[in-house]
Write a structure and sequence with these properties.
about 500 residues, alpha+beta, 3 domains, 22 helices
């Protein structure tokens, strides 16, 4: 069998994602903080990009509002939004750059990216450093009469505490790490357990509660220690009558002991946990003006970009013909101008797309903004995608990690999307509205006789919502609400 080479012509179609399209998609799905970081990084890498100073005047008209100095999108921009279409791979980045028109028509202001002066959180609520649990315990250990070996082992113990203050390693492991006896490590652990907060460096919940009972001065109360040591499971299930029968003591005495145990902290180290509070900056403001809702894209804090005029003058000075160095310089500037132009276009496209999606959400959820959570309608990505004539994946990128400031509060944009529940009358209701009804029913129950899931099902059915008991249990768990047996309060 002979092998030979042949040339064949083949015609096919394929989707090519240009770098410009990839950049637009990337910017669309970024959160606000990630977008600022990306812009700052691009400004460092591209010398043609520069930020317009705050004292330089812009063409935007700033209109004061009750919520703050909000800057609405101009009417011309709104008309442009109506014509904005979803970015596609066809034709993106393939046009030739007209350098003559660029050198003649590019003004000193250039393509700018506006922002508004919305009220931001104060710095003292953000830049604040609190003492960690390890630092607090190390400070106490330095004030304690411990020798060098004890401090060395104690440092190892403190370093192996989790965020709740529990010891993650065994005394045998700590003793092996510091080359000491296990009894010595155990004695150091007992000294650490006397530090503040009470219950620190415990190995389990039982030991944590026993340490706190000893430090609270109830060591002589044998009933408290016995319940913690032997009947912790019954205590969790609130089987107080069962505990009284097993210990052969009056129920009233058990209730007194339970009150003492209830005042203890099962997570003593959580108050020193390093939880950084991140202020939410909305991407969109929804402001009610009369009977209508206005959509305002929040550009505050985002750099206003333009292409540097310094390099425009350099290009004009290079002329049309030159040596290799001049040609390389022109090529470099041409590449950077294209990159800067596409970045500015992508940012503007991102803001316009967010505007259109927010406008569609407000249109669908008008009853929610007027009347509250009970009137939240079922909404899926397909509905908004059909309304704004974009793909569902684009809508998913827009609502991810984007927040909307409304008269009802600040919500993540994907909060307004959810499944539907069929009413008895045949109408549909959003699942979030059902969760709110369940939360309201549980909030009004008698603490000594909480409603079971079956009772909640019957109460919802009386209100026209027919769902299964397992659905109620699932929604209750999603909201972090305990079952009726653990919600019951005896005193």
């Amino acid at each position: 069998m002979a092998f030979e080479l042949k040339q064949n012509l083949k015609l096919s179609q394929q989707l090519i994602m240009t770098p410009q399209l990839q950049q637009a998609i990337k910017l669309l799905q970024l959160s606000r903080m990630e977008l600022v970081e990306t812009i700052n990084q691009e400004m460092e890498e591209n010398p043609l990009l520069e930020e317009i100073a705050a004292d330089e005047g812009g063409d935007e008209e700033i209109v004061p509002d009750v919520e703050g100095d909000l800057q609405p999108i101009e009417s011309a921009d709104v008309k442009l939004l109506q014509k904005t279409e979803e970015l596609t791979g066809e034709g993106d980045g393939r046009e030739e750059f007209d350098w003559n028109n660029y050198l003649e028509d590019y003004g000193p202001v250039g393509v700018t990216y506006g922002r508004q002066d919305a009220e931001a959180p104060t710095w003292d609520n953000i830049l604040c450093e609190s003492q960690t649990l390890a630092e607090y315990l190390m400070w106490q250990m330095k004030l304690s009469p411990l020798d060098e070996d004890e401090i060395r082992v104690g440092t190892q113990i403190i370093g192996n505490l989790d965020q709740n203050g529990y010891l993650c390693a065994t005394t045998a492991e700590i003793a092996a790490l510091e080359n000491v006896g296990e009894e010595f490590a155990e004695s150091v652990l007992r000294k650490i357990q006397e530090f503040d907060p009470p219950g620190i460096a415990a190995r389990n919940l039982q030991e944590c509660l026993l340490i706190q009972a000893r430090m609270m001065g109830v060591k002589r109360n044998h009933l408290v220690e016995t319940i913690i040591s032997e009947h912790l499971k019954d205590l969790e299930l609130k089987n107080y009558l069962q505990i009284a029968r097993k210990l052969k003591v009056p129920l009233r005495e058990v209730e007194k002991a339970v009150l003492i145990i209830s005042s203890m902290d099962p997570r003593p180290g959580s108050i020193y946990a390093e939880e950084k509070t991140q202020a939410i900056i909305p991407d969109v403001y929804v402001v009610k003006s009369g009977d209508e809702y206005k959509i305002i894209v929040n550009d505050d804090g985002l750099p206003r970009l333009r292409i540097s005029n310094f390099y425009r003058e350099i290009m004009a000075g290079l002329g049309t013909h030159g040596n290799n160095e001049q040609e390389n310089g022109k090529k470099y500037i041409r590449e950077k101008v294209q990159a800067a132009t596409w970045l500015i276009k992508s940012i503007q496209q991102r803001q316009k797309t967010i505007y259109k999606v927010a406008e569609s959400i407000v249109k669908y959820q008008r009853d929610f903004f007027d009347k509250g959570i009970n009137y939240l309608k079922p909404l899926v990505l397909r509905d908004v995608a059909h309304d704004v004539e974009m793909h569902e994946s684009t809508i998913s990128r827009v609502v991810n990690n984007k927040y909307m400031h409304t008269p009802r509060g600040i919500f993540e944009m994907k909060y307004f999307f959810g499944s539907s529940i069929q009413r008895v009358s045949g109408e549909t209701i959003a699942s979030k509205s059902v969760k709110e009804e369940i939360k309201k029913i549980i909030g009004q129950e008698n603490p000594k006789k909480p409603y079971s899931d079956c009772e909640i099902v019957n109460m919802l059915k009386e209100g026209g919502i027919d769902i299964a008991r397992r659905t109620v249990a699932k929604y209750r768990e999603m909201m972090g609400i305990l079952p009726s047996s653990k919600r019951k309060k005896y005193f």
